[in-house]
């Protein structure tokens, strides 16, 4: 299973929230949010990055018609607001807690840039991590534009398998222990929760998968 707490050999949480490092101790703070509370809004100043300690955070924006577009739903160990270190002055998206007791660690842009200047290897890994996130977002937007809903779901499950899946040696199934609700998945692939439930049951009847609240099992294909 790929852990979102790490990229390569860097433990992101320990690096970005290292209260044991006295020179950065005063630059870090933890903030708690309840469900539906905003961490930042569109057009807010982009002066911090954030790392999720617990809970889930929704990243998105609103169209001119007031429709909400969800770009990502992030979980424990994931970084957001990172465009601040790429020169963004104001936010072009919102960040909202979608869990009670969501906790995030905030890192000032100046502090982050200082840490990156002092550690070239870490700097490279941060930019690599950001690039990976952008590629995932671009792929998801392509799915929304060019694929039907069922195909979007199947390809999203393939993506989940890379992030949260592992093989079961006894059956050869791919087991995905993930943090998303059906509502989360619906938001991410641009459909409704009832539609997700219908499609999951269709895929179950086709012997493509089995699922419960916290686990999806992609069944091994038999000849």
Concise overview:
This is Crp/Fnr family transcriptional regulator. With 223 residues, this protein is an alpha+beta fold. It contains six helices and 14 strands.
Name the features.
223 residues, 14 strands, disordered N terminus, alpha+beta, 4-stranded antiparallel β-sheet, 35% helix, globular
How much is the average pLDDT?
81
Q: How many DSSP H or I helices?
A: 6
- Number of distinct beta strands: 14
Approximate strand percentage: 25-35%
Write the layout of secondary structure elements.
Elements lengths: L5 E2 L2 E2 H5 L11 E6 L4 E3 L7 E7 L2 E6 L5 E7 L4 E2 L13 E4 L4 E7 H10 L1 H27 L2 H16 E3 L6 E4 L4 H8 L3 H13 L3 E3 L3 E4 L5
Antiparallel strand pairs: 1-2, 3-10, 4-9, 5-8, 5-10, 6-7, 6-9, 11-12, 12-14, 13-14
Keywords: DNA-binding, Transcription, Transcription regulation
Pfam family, one: HTH_Crp_2
InterPro entries: cNMP-bd_dom, cNMP-bd_dom_sf, Env_Response_Regulators, HTH_CRP, RmlC-like_jellyroll, WH-like_DNA-bd_sf, WH_DNA-bd_sf
């Amino acid at each position: 299973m790929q852990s979102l707490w790490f990229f390569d050999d860097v433990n992101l949480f320990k690096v970005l929230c290292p209260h044991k490092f006295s020179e950065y101790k005063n630059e870090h703070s933890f903030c708690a949010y309840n469900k539906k509370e905003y961490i930042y809004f569109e057009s807010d100043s982009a002066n911090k990055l954030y790392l999720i300690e617990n809970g889930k955070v929704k990243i998105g924006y609103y169209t001119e018609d007031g429709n909400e577009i969800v770009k990502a739903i992030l979980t424990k160990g994931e970084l957001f607001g990172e465009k601040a270190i790429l020169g963004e002055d104001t936010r072009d998206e919102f960040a909202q807690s979608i869990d009670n007791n969501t906790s995030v660690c905030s890192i000032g842009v100046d502090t982050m840039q200082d840490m990156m200047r002092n550690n070239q290897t870490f700097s490279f890994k941060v930019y690599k991590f950001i690039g990976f996130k952008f590629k995932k977002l671009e792929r998801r937007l392509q799915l929304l534009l060019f694929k039907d809903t069922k195909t979007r779901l199947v390809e999203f499950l393939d993506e989940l398998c890379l992030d949260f899946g592992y093989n079961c040696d006894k059956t050869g199934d791919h087991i995905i222990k993930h943090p998303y609700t059906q509502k989360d998945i619906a938001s991410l692939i641009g459909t409704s929760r009832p539609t997700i439930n219908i499609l999951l049951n269709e895929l179950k009847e086709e012997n493509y998968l089995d699922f419960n609240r916290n686990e999806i099992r992609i069944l091994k294909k038999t000849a």
